[in-house]
Amino acid sequence: MTEQVATTSSTTARRVQKVGYVISNKADKTIVVSVESLKKHRIYKRAYKQTKHFHAHDENNTCQIGDLVRIEETSPISKLKRWRLVEIVKSSSGIVPVEEVLAEVDPNLTQSETSAEAEESAE
């Protein structure tokens, strides 16, 4: 009696994409992206910056801190990850501060240098 018409929607919903900077890549296959947006205050009409952090899936661990990346909305991958990496728009310079390199090699090395400098300046 009733006809069931199979409808296929030819227009698929576009997924939301955002562009931001990688602020952390410490977790395996996960990056944290900081996205800034300008909003207008509802009463005072003044523009202000709003920063949000998104956890995104980086399958090949290719991102470094400071990279400008494009992320896209996706179905939930884990508790916090609802975004995935689409592309690296601009790579960072790749320059790592000397203090971070020394801290990775030997954490006591940076402490002994600072104490030695303090003793020399005291004399």
Automatic annotation (TrEMBL):
Pfam families referenced in this protein's UniProt entry, alphabetically: Ribosomal_S17
Q: What's in the keyword line of the UniProt record?
A: Ribonucleoprotein, Ribosomal protein, RNA-binding, rRNA-binding
Q: Which domain of life is it from?
A: Bacteria
Q: Which GO terms describe its cellular component?
A: cytosolic small ribosomal subunit
Which GO annotations describe the biological process of this protein?
Answer: translation
Task: Recall the GO molecular function terms of this protein's record.
Answer: rRNA binding; structural constituent of ribosome
Q: Which family does it belong to?
A: Belongs to the universal ribosomal protein uS17 family.
Summarize the protein's role. Answer: One of the primary rRNA binding proteins, it binds specifically to the 5'-end of 16S ribosomal RNA.
NCBIfam families reported for this sequence: PRK05610.1 (NF004123), uS17_bact (TIGR03635)
Cite the PANTHER family for this sequence. 40S RIBOSOMAL PROTEIN S11 FAMILY MEMBER, SMALL RIBOSOMAL SUBUNIT PROTEIN US17M
Q: How does it assemble?
A: Part of the 30S ribosomal subunit.
* Protein name per its UniProtKB record: Small ribosomal subunit protein uS17
